[in-house]
Amino acid sequence: MEHSWVDKETAETNLGDARLNRRLGAMLEALEQRPGQSLPTAFQDWSNTKAAYRFLSNENVSEDKILEGHFAASALRIQATEGPILILQDTTEFNFKRADPDKIGFTKSSTGRK
Fold first, then answer.
1. In angstroms, rounded to a whole number, what is the distance separating the alpha carbons of residues 11 and 21?
2. Which of 6, 15, 70, 92 has the largest CB neighbor count within 10 A?
3. How far apart are CA 14 and CA 72, in angstroms?
4. How confident is the model over 92-109, as pLDDT tens digits?
5. Is there a contact between 5 and 45 (Cβ–Cβ < 8 Å)?
6. What are the extents of the domains in the chain?
7. How big is the chain by its Cα radius of gyration, in Å?
8. Computed from CA positions of residues 50, 56, 61, 67, in that sequence, does the dihedral angle turn out positive or negative?
9. Are 52 and 65 in contact (CB under 8 A)?
């Protein structure tokens, strides 16, 4: 039986309760289906959304514990290769919202010629 990416990515995650581990997997699968969406949109109904909020507020759940499985899976992927490992990171953030967009005004005119 082939394991899903979620199973592989969370195999070493231990939140102290099998139900919490399963909930993390279910949440990751839902978020995969709707990337970038809010939790209510990603989870589609109130019961799943409420379960996600309960999961995130559980004292046994922390960022470190959630990422533990991901770090272990990443280490296995690195060990499985002999070639160079590229680690890409982009922490760039853009915010184009303005309190008063009219204050920006006309910023530049370009005719495509120099």
1. 9
2. 15
3. 12
4. 887 777 777 677 666 666
5. no
6. 5-79
7. 21
8. positive
9. no
